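Q: My labmate handed me this sequence with no annotations at all. I'd like to see what the chain might look like in three dimensions before we decide whether it's worth expressing. Could you predict it?
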Amino acid sequence: MMLKNRLALIAHDSRKDLLVAWVGRHAEHLENMAIVATGTTGQRISKAHPHLSVRSVKSGPLGGDQQIGALIAEGALDALIFFVDPLSPMPHDVDVKALTRLAIVYDLPMACSPSTADAVLLHLVAGAEEA
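A: Here is what I predict for the chain of 131 residues:
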């Protein structure tokens, strides 16, 4: 029995459109994955791509980042895609740093831009095909 890849999707406000478009370009592969996303990001993805199964947790600043962090610590994710806006001040910067630290500690593939997200997705898809 092949297990689904488990992917977390997060995007800062100015990057949500970019993430929704990225999901659209890769919907064929993402259909076979268990996706969890922070609140508004998950809602936007679900609205644009209703055929995908997306579980939304709380909004990032309201605890969603910590919920994703807990999934990382529990070993419940295979990758994290987090489209960060590097040019805007982040009121919950400590949450972003905490997610980055957890991804490093638990050796979880993490992508912060479309090109690195493409590479992480390619890695997940190749691993699923080998299983």
